[in-house]
Task: inverse folding
């Protein structure tokens, strides 16, 4: 039997040929060279990701993580401008000149209050107060790897144009990119690329929820809670009254709205009437108009709580982000390249890790998702997919055509913001998914440099989607300065 016929039998007859092998059969020599270059540096970028995983710096405090990525880009020949948009840990790294300008986003902030060792059993780390439960330790180095790979391709090919890496802090509630958008740092960019860690590989043109976040602060009068309670006015009563009204309000707002909160300050001792209390709220909806309406009602509830408890209420908007604006033209191109790259194949040791970790998901998840799914690429879908999460990439997507993908950096079945996500993000499983993303971003960026019609078509679709000339960008967080202390 001829080799070509045997290959067709394996692919179409038996149907078991791995995605990665299928991909290699259709890659051009140029693409193979780009991917080989990334493969040769995989261990190095894995080391960077593990270092950022170890540091686990929260939003606007990512000094070491940001400096590490800046150093990597500087060594590679990029011009780096640090401290942009009034944010010490934000930066822009640029290589090349002229059009097109292709941007790549990089994140590196951790989440507070969740720690875990890189093990499949629950093992919190007492030495840490935060963990990379959203995989941003992979997001930053993966994007840097892609930017450097594209820079190397630009040099070798002699193509004109600019590759730009945006170091974007505090995605987790701090809305770092919003300030960068507001500063005009994306005003000359043709297309922006991004990715995110996940438990599967996909590049659908999905959207997300817009959100507004705020801290509501109540100030009362301290008094002895037993000897003279009548002389006190409890700030905690103000917080609890607001929470009670918001929880009743849930019945009378659109059912797809998301509202959640934590009491960040509730007093120091039960026998002292608290003179200060604070509650931190998130509200989300896919429609910004509905979001803003619900937000106004929340403020009224807070005002009423202050009046009813005779406490003084003030609030500070911490963050606010738009929903993602998908561009199907770009999503199809990203999906094409993700399919060429293929998913993540586990070693026996990684499979053992994944199976053990999967036991912690419970029967409902463990019986549905299998470790082998990390090797697959989800079929393309344009059925208005909606993520219930929020991201400040949303604001970027409304000022420049933007496209992203998810890569299987976590064991299939893993939930974001979980200890299982922290564990996977600190392992070789996470690094493999990170390199899938780096490769897919690189191939897509190169396509955009080589084919101007891709950019033109994407911009036409994008302009139509955002409402044409009638659209005017206004940040949901207003004109406030970056909330640099929101995690302190």
Result:
């Amino acid at each position: 039997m001829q080799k070509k016929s045997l290959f067709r039998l394996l692919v179409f007859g038996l149907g078991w040929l791995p995605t990665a092998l299928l991909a290699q059969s259709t890659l051009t020599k140029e693409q193979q060279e780009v991917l080989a270059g990334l493969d040769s540096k995989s261990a190095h970028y894995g080391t960077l990701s593990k270092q950022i995983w170890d540091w686990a710096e929260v939003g606007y405090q990512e000094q070491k993580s940001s400096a590490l990525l800046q150093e990597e880009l500087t060594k590679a020949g990029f011009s780096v401008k640090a401290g942009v948009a009034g944010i010490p840990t934000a930066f822009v790294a640029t290589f090349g000149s002229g059009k097109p300008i292709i941007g790549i986003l990089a994140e590196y902030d951790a989440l507070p209050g969740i720690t875990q060792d890189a093990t499949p059993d629950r093992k919190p780390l007492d030495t840490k107060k935060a963990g990379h439960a959203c995989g941003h330790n992979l997001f930053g180095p993966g994007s840097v790897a892609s930017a450097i790979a594209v820079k190397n391709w630009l040099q070798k090919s002699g193509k004109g144009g600019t590759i730009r890496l945006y170091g974007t802090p505090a995605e987790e509630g701090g809305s770092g990119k919003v300030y960068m958008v507001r500063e005009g740092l994306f005003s000359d960019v043709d297309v922006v690329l991004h990715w995110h860690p996940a438990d599967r590989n996909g590049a659908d043109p999905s959207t997300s929820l817009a959100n507004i976040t705020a801290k509501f602060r109540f100030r009362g009068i301290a008094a002895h809670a037993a000897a003279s309670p009548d002389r006190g006015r409890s700030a905690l009563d103000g917080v609890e009254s607001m929470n009670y009204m918001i929880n009743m309000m849930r019945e009378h707002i659109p059912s797809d709205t998301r509202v959640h909160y934590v009491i960040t300050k509730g007093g120091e001792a039960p026998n002292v009437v608290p003179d200060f209390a604070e509650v931190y709220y998130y509200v989300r909806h896919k429609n910004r108009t509905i979001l803003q309406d619900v937000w106004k009602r929340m403020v009224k509830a807070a005002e009423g709580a202050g009046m009813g408890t005779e406490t003084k209420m003030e609030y500070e908007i911490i963050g606010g982000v738009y929903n993602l604006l998908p561009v199907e033209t770009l999503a199809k191109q990203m999906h094409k390249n993700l399919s060429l790259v293929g998913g993540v194949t586990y070693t026996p040791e990684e499979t053992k890790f994944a199976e053990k970790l999967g036991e912690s998901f419970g029967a409902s998840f463990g019986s549905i998702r299998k470790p082998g799914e990390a090797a697959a690429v989800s079929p393309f879908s344009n059925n208005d997919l909606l993520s219930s999460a929020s991201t400040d990439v949303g604001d970027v997507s409304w000022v420049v055509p933007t496209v992203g993908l998810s890569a299987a950096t976590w064991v299939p079945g893993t939930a974001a913001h979980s200890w299982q996500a922290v564990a996977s993000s600190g392992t070789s499983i996470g690094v493999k998914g990170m390199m899938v993303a780096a490769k897919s971003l690189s191939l897509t960026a190169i396509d955009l440099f080589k084919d101007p019609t891709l950019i033109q078509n994407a911009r036409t679709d994008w302009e139509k989607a955002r409402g044409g000339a009638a659209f005017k960008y206004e940040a949901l967080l207003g004109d406030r300065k970056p909330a640099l202390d929101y995690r302190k």
Remarks:
- Residues 428-450 form the longest helix (23 residues).
- Residues 263 and 279 are 4 Å apart (CA to CA).
- The chain has 16 helices and twelve strands.
